[in-house]
Each structure stands twice: as structure tokens, then as C-alpha cells.
Amino acid sequence: IDMDFMNLNQSAHGDREFAHILTRLRKPRKTVIGYWKDEKTQERIAVWERVCAGWADSQDMLILRFGDQMNNVAVTDGDKVAAEQVLGYHVDYMPFSEVMTFFNEVKDADVTALVKDVYFKEYQVAEDIKDENSEAYRKVWNAAKAELTLRAVMAAKGAKGFTTNFDDLGDVNVEETGKGFDQIPGLASQRMMSDGFGFGAEGDWKSAALYRTVWFMSQGLDGGTSFLEDYTLNFDGDNTSILESHMLEINPDIAEEKPRLEVHFLGIGVRKTPTARLVFTAKQGHGTTATIVDMGNRFRLIANDVNLIKSKPLPKLPVASALWIPEPTFEVGVGCWLNAGGTHHSCFSFGLTDEYWRDYAEIADIECCIINKDTDIEHFRQDLRMNEVYYMLNKALR
Fold first, then answer.
1. What residues contact 255, with CB distance under 8 A and at least 6 apart?
2. Is the dihedral of CA 155, 159, 165, 167 positive or negative?
3. Contact in structure between 63 and 162 (CB atoms under 8 Å)
4. Rounded Cα gap, residues 340 and 338, in angstroms
5. DSSP of 154-210, one letter per residue?
């Protein structure tokens, strides 16, 4: 090394000047330390690149709401204006009367083709559905028409995601008139999530937007993604776990085996009727689930590392499900999630890690709460208290 070499290789000097400028300007950023050709350095940059792609995708994201928040659940709502200002996406309400204009344009031949050429070939099919004269087949056929309707709506509006509501499905006399959705579009939601459309049940527009981002960032990674809901607790000592499910809407990409197309009665919402759905249990492995909550003066991102475990057969539960144990333990993981105000809905990925969510929060300039194997609940609670002070005071530095 001579003086010429040293003067031309001054990252040790220039990095500090650049970092100082960013710090003085209070600019959030990711700092990657290492030689640019090293695999570890490239992997960390690649994470940041995926997050940047997801962030860019959200800046022109439109989420359509078919119905409002079901039962006025607080965690599924929030400030839509603030969400657009901070997170970039826009949320619009679309009345079902307008949805019906698309429904009426769907051709019967296209519906039949979707059922026979796609559904019947891609999935295991329950025997009662194969009879074209059966009620089960009619329900699947109607579910396919709902799917084609929603896809047409998304294309016409340029939307990247949507929400549904069990109590807002259009004409209440649909069984007599035959005009409109005769069931919640659960099968459509499952399949459209697989294709990258954001989805949130019960009017949960924040989950719909976040799921789209999770899917976008996870493209090319192993394992799959899904919208999920904390449903039932299985108390079993050190193996105590949470059954993640929903009435219908779980992405088949996380299925352990080939999903089975079935029709069962669904006794919730305005359409208490047999309803089509894909039934399966999820594969096993490690992943991360995340949610965003509106704290009033800021948005808070909460992410939890979870381990999906093998589920026992659930022959009386005709819906898709996953079984997981949150890290570091059930008690600490759930306790931290509750203390942070986490939702019952979350967006899961086998491929994403904590680093993705830390980078996302940096870019979005929102609060980030990570729960993983190293989390101590008392330190976590103390961090939450300190964050309250920070997010009140840091406005003066902007």
C-alpha cells in the first residue's frame, strides 16, 4: 500500500462523512458493513432490495373494500388518510351494486371452464362436487363466477388488493333472484392471494395492503405466504400452540399436501349457506408473521418469529389451518404481541425474516417491534414505554 492507493481507497473515511450527514439530517437508512463481493454482504443488500421493491409497489397500491369493518373491530380499522400519507397505499370503498355490474358480464362458459379445467385439475375434489346436478357443484360454480367477477374488478380498477365482509354481499334475496354472490367469496380469496392480490377478511384493509407487500417481497423465496388469523389455543405444556385459520381464506401456497376442494355449511354472516373452500393443513417450518396497527399518533409494525408444527388430523374442521408456536415461547411471544397491541389477523411468510421487517420500518419511518428467540418480555415492555416517549418527542427533530 502506498499513498496513491490509500488516497484512492478511502471508504473508511467517506463512509463516516456520508453517515454523519445522514445522521445530522435524521435520515433513516440501512447500514451494511462488509466487502461488497462477500456473500454475506450481498445477502444483506439483497434483503434491502426486496424491501425497496415491496415499498415501491405499495406507493401506487389501491385496496378496494367490499363492505366495512365487520362488527366494528378496532384492530381492523385505522386512519386511511394517515396510511396513505405514511405508507403510500390508497383505500377505496366499492359498493356491491357496482360489483354486480361486473358480475353480470361474466360468461357462463368461462365459469364452467374455470371449474372443470382449473379447479378439477389443480385440486383434489370431493365426490359430491363432481355431480353437475348437485348443490355442491352449483356452489362451486357460483364461487367460480365470484372469482371471475373479483378478478375483473381488480383489473378494471387497477387494484392490488381487497377486503370482504360476511355481512355485505349484495342482494339479500339472492337465493330467489339468482343475481349476486350466494356465499362469501372464500375460494376466490384463497386463489387470488396465491396470485399476489392483497386480502383482508372482515374489512381489514391494513392486512390486505400488508399481505400484498409480504407476497411481493417473498417472490422467489421458498415456502409461501398467507393471511392468517389467531383462532384457537392448544394448551399442551411446552408444545402449547396457536391454531391459525379462518372461516375460509387461507392461501393454498402454504399447504402441506394438495388442497381438497370441498363444500360445507358456513353459519356466519348474511349468507348462512353451503360454501366452497380449499381444505388443507399447512406445512411445517420456520417463518415470520407481521401486522401493522394504528396507535393514533403513529403506525406500529409488529413481527413475530413462529415455528409451524405438525397438526393432528382435523376431520371435523373443514377449513384450511396452520399450527404454530410463537418464539421465544408461547407465553412470551403471545404476551409481547398483546402488550404491543397486535391484531388477531397477520400476514405470514416462510421466506421473510426479521431483517426484512426492520428494513421496511426504516424505509416507512414507522415503529418496529420484533419478537423472536432473543426477546425478554420485561425488556420488550420497557422498550414499548420508551417508544411512547420517543414518538412524542421526535417530531421536533423532523
1. 278, 280, 281, 282, 283, 320
2. negative
3. yes
4. 5
5. HHHHT-SEEE--TT--S-TTHHHH--S-SS--HHHHHHHHHTT-EEEGGG-HHHHHH
Residue 288's SS3 state is: strand
CB-CB contact of 267 with 251 (8 Å)? no
- Three-state DSSP class for residue 372: coil
- Taking CA 386 as the corner, what is the angle to CA 305 and CA 329, rounded to the nearest 5 degrees? 25
223: helix, coil or strand? coil
Determine the Cα–Cα distance for residues 374 and 378; give it in Å rounded to an integer.
12
Distance between CA 71 and CA 269 in Å, rounded? 11
Cβ-count burial of 114 within 10 angstroms (0-12 exposed, 13-18 middle, 19+ buried)? buried
What is the reported pLDDT for 177?
Answer: 67
Residue 397: band (very low, low, confident or very high) from pLDDT cuts 50, 70, 90: low
For the chain, the average pLDDT equals: 94
Distance from C-alpha of 287 to C-alpha of 348, rounded to nearest angstrom: 7
Question: Greater confidence, 227 or 10?
Answer: 227
Q: How far apart are CA 8 and CA 1, in angstroms?
A: 11
Calculate mean pLDDT across residues 358-379.
Answer: 97
- Angle at alpha carbon of residue 251, lines to 249 and 255, rounded to 5°: 120
Letter for the amino acid at 59?
Q
pTM of the model: 0.94
Q: Are 290 and 311 in contact (CB under 8 A)?
A: no
**Distance between CA atoms of 319 and 315, rounded to whole angstroms?**
10
- Tens-place pLDDT, residues 218-246: 999 999 999 999 999 999 999 999 999 99
pLDDT in tens, 37-83: 999 999 999 999 999 999 999 999 999 999 888 888 999 999 999 99
The end-to-end CA distance of the chain, in Å, is 43
152's CB contacts (< 8 A; 6+ apart) are 102, 105, 106
Q: 151 pLDDT band (50/70/90 cuts)?
A: very high
